[in-house]
Amino acid sequence: MDNANYTALTRQSGLLSEMRIVANNIANANTTGFRTEGLMFAEHIAALGPDHDSLSMATSTVRDTSLAQGAISSTGGTFDLAIEGDGFFLVQTPNGERLTRAGSFTPNGDGDLVTMEGYPVLDSGGAPVFVPQGVGSIGIAPDGTLSADGQPVGQIGIVVPSDPNGLIREDGVRFEAQGGYEPAIDGRMLQGFLEESNVNPILQVSRMIEVQRAYELGQSFMDKEDERIRGVIQALGR
């Protein structure tokens, strides 16, 4: 296979990966707390020798997550929480502590505040948040302080990753902070609200069309290149 086909194949592979990401973004446009994902392309250039042109190939190994604020919608739910500004909720999963912006929580049978999957919600120190049972009213302040009948009983953690570029995407909602985390300074918690996905469906559909057209153009180039090589082989074989 010649260099032109190698270059085209690497480009097609990257475009196919981007198409999967864009499709996943669109599918999660209504998922609470979902963060838009993108793909970053880079150029790899290799020298082939003094008598040959260099070879350039596109790579798409870096994925980028948008941490832009999503729209805030009112639900009125006591344990529906949204973060306005920087920060994440901290939850305990079977694989360890994870960060999330999906704030649809509920108390379980033991009184622990948990996610819809049953994962405990933690305070900024990593301890489970307990919700007293049988109280008249539950209030949650902007700093995460949880009060029962006006008396503070705990605080829901709002944290930020120590290294924002080191976040590892576990899925569209939860992230692992391998570099650790620290209490957020600017984050503000809103009770009775949820943060929607930060996906812009119009932009994502437009991007999908662009990627599809680029892929079709690359495929057309490879088909023509294949026809050219076949023509050369047939001419030489006569």
Overview of the structural elements:
The protein has 2 domains: 3-67 and 199-236; 72-195, no CATH class. Helix 1 runs antiparallel to helix 2. It has helices at 3-27, 201-236; strands spanning 37-46, 55-65, 72-74, 81-84, 89-93, 96-100, 105-107, 113-115, 138-140, 145-148, 151-155, 159-161, 167-169, 174-177, 181-183, 188-191, 193-195. The protein has a 4-stranded antiparallel sheet with strand order 5-6-14-13, with no helix packed on it. The protein has a 3-stranded antiparallel sheet with strand order 9-10-11, with no helix packed on it. With 238 residues, the chain is an alpha+beta fold. It is built from 2 helices and 17 strands. The model has no long low-confidence stretch (mean pLDDT 87).
Range of strand content = 25-35%
* Helical segment count: 2
Radius of gyration: 25 Å
Number of domains: 2
Sheet of most strands: 4 strands, antiparallel
* Sequence of secondary-structure elements: HEEEEEEEEEEEEEEEEEH
General form: elongated
| Major sheet: arrangement of strands | 5-6-14-13
Q: Structural class of the helices, strands and pairings?
A: alpha+beta
| Distance from first to last alpha carbon | 22 Å
How confident overall, as mean pLDDT? Answer: 87
The percent of residues in helical segments reads 25-40%
- Sequence stretches where pLDDT stays below 50 over 5 or more residues: none
Number of strands: 17
